[in-house]
Amino acid sequence: MEEKLKEIIDVIRINKLSYLEILQLLQEKFNFVPMDYLNKICEMLEIPKSKIYGILTFYSQFSTNERGKYLIRICDGTACHVKGATKLIEMLKRNYHLEDGKTTQDKKFTLQVVACLGGCFLAPVCMINSHYHGSLDENKLKNILESLK
Amino acid sequence: MDILLVLKKGYFYIRAEYPIAVEHIQKALEVCYNLGLCGRNILGTNFNFDIELKKGAGAFVCGEETALIASIEGKRGMPKPRPPFPAEKGLYGSPTCVNNVETFVNIPIIINEGAENFAKLGTEKSGGTKIFSLAGKTKNTGLVEVPLGIPLAKIVYDIGGGALNGRKIKGVQTGGPSGGCIPVEFFNTPVDYETFAELGSIMGSGGMIVIDDTVCIVELARYFTEFVQKESCGKCVPCRIGTKRMLEILEKITKAKAEVEDLTTLEMLGNYIKETSLCGLGQTAPNPVLTTIKYFRDEYIAHIVDKICPAAVCKELIEYYIEPTKCVGCTVCLKNCPVEAIEGKTKQTHKINILKCIKCGICFTLCKYKAITVKQATIYATENKN
Ligand SMILES: Cc1cc2nc3c(=O)[nH]c(=O)nc-3n(C[C@H](O)[C@H](O)[C@H](O)COP(=O)(O)O)c2cc1C
Ligand code: SF4
Ligand code: SF4
Ligand code: FES
Fold it and tell me: What whole-number distance in Å separates Cα of residue B112 and Cα of residue B265?
């Protein structure tokens, strides 16, 4: 941890990152915001924890829980909603016991419900890690998830 | 080179959920820097202009200009009262212009082609073209650029190719959760800022979601209200609590637990929230509900009085049923039902146990013989008969 922490602190100092950018950096590096790192960073850079906690909880992109191997971002924006996104979310709840923000016990999948992924013309859409999948239905999504190791 | 405005720095603020847009702008910026089109000594002059890309972190309210500025500054995206307007005192206290990229993109066209030529397209007050994201229940979907002033019908039917699967188009939701739903009766009106405002909607960033008769208007209004309620920053009471109260009423309607008076309450709450919220989020949050009550009142009444969901979406009001004369006993529904709610033997009529059924609709989509239909929930159907 020591070495990684030093690296992160250096990046923050060199680039004069704002509080929001510090959180974005952690989220990008770890896929979530690890509180042990965040607390150490606050102490070392003399950042009030209340300030950074306020930002952390304001933006929905951040998660303080470790995420699964695959982050499933299901779009429930308007276009996807009218094209049946609710059914996809229900399927994930039923078959994988997922909830928005929750991770499966085997740490394979994490579900995040988001509003619009910018692929409205392919609705309903989801993103699994950095891959887009469009024109989904329950079976198609199930098959995609089952093909993931 | 003439310099019109001496600006020091520009930012692109892009939602983190749009990684492709982020990637494209990053590449474009690299190209511009390499060609000397931004950065120091642009095109050999002593004019400097840096551009930076900032990613959002998942907060709708950060589209509001003062919240956007707070977010670029690395803070919570909470809107601030105006004045001072960003143009006087914005990012880090400096005068700031907040606009959509599409707006800025029009400026070089106006300068190069001349204002008169630019205004040749579009209407008298809404000049030029506008890009819409056409999505929802039409055959063709995607980004479309049209001259302002063309009839809505042209976008939906000519470009969009009309309804999917022979369904009936009911309307178009424009401007996202801050906009309203424009019904087909108004499809011949021109697409411009003024007409949209008259109809109670907005153009916004150009979302155009086409809605057909399989979409429940009340459920859609509930969905938008849930969204704005979650995204409210919480700073002011009308927006924070008012949208919650509206959501509760809408939930009651979709569950057949509401009364006709609830519509009056919804309208009253909606108008208060519009008038008394601090920022654009709250001021526009009731639009989807208010426009749908205005244009689709009969759908609300169907839910409240007749306890029917005309689009067969609201679960508490519907029931799935297997038509014995059409069922051939293929067992597809039985095998795919997630809760074993279907009983029956091969080649014999199947039956849904309504006590077990969770109304997921899988059997309905899978039955090749169209033997499964949706009808009004039995409790309400008998209630109506008495
Ligand atoms: C809650 C809220 C969300 C907004 N989201 C966006 C957005 O995603 N994109 C956008 O261009 N403008 C958005 N706006 C409007 C901007 O605040 C601003 O008014 C607009 O960018 C002005 O530029 P324009 O005249 O070029 O459209 C939003 C406004 C509000 C109140
Ligand atoms: S109107 Fe809503 S989003 Fe805007 S400042 Fe008030 S509470 Fe926040
Ligand atoms: S709607 Fe779903 S739960 Fe109900 S019978 Fe059909 S498949 Fe089973
Ligand atoms: S609404 Fe789902 S991608 Fe836009």
Answer: 52
For residue B238, give the 3-state DSSP assignment: helix
**B319 three-class SS:** strand
Q: Are residues A77 and A47 in the same domain?
A: no
Q: How confident is the model at residue A97 (pLDDT cuts 50, 70, 90)?
A: very high
Which domains are present in chain B?
2-106 (3.40.50.11540), 129-212 (3.10.20.600), 217-306 (1.20.1440.230), 315-385 (3.30.70.20)
CA of B157 to the centre of ligand 2 (A): 37
Distance CA A125, CA A121 (A): 9
> With contact defined as beta carbons under 8 Å apart, do B195 and B180 qualify?
no
Of B94, B90, B314, which is closest to residue B222 (Cα–Cα)?
B314
Q: How far apart are CA A139 and CA A84, in angstroms?
A: 13
Of B18, B211, B215, the CB nearest to A118: B18
Q: How many CB atoms lie within 10 A of CB B174?
A: 25
The model's confidence at residue B384, banded by pLDDT at 50, 70 and 90, is: low
Residue A125 belongs to domain with CATH number: 3.40.30.10
Which residue, of A58, A78, A98, is where some domain finishes?
A: A58
For B282-321, write each residue's pLDDT tens digit: 999 999 999 999 999 999 999 999 999 999 999 999 999 9
Which among A56, A58, A112 is the top mutation candidate for probing chain B, defined by the most B β-carbons within 10 Å of its own β-carbon?
A58
Q: Whose CA is nearest to atom 5 of ligand 1?
A: B63
Distance CA A27, CA A38 (A): 11
Q: Are B25 and B33 in contact (CB under 8 A)?
A: no
Tell whether A76 and A50 lie within a shared domain. no
Task: Give the count of domains, chain A.
Answer: 2
pTM (predicted TM-score): 0.94
Q: Which uninterrupted H or E stretch holds B209?
A: strand B207-212
Yes or no, beta carbons of B57 and A130 under 8 Å apart: no
Backbone torsions φ then ψ of B186, nearest 5 degrees: -105, 15
Token look-up 């000397």 returns B36
- Chain B environment of A95 (Cβ under 8 Å): 338
pLDDT single digits (tens) B42-97: 999 899 999 999 999 999 999 999 999 999 999 999 999 999 999 999 999 999 99
Using CA positions, which residue lies closest to atom 2 of ligand 3? B360
Which two three-digit tokens encode residue B103? 């707006």
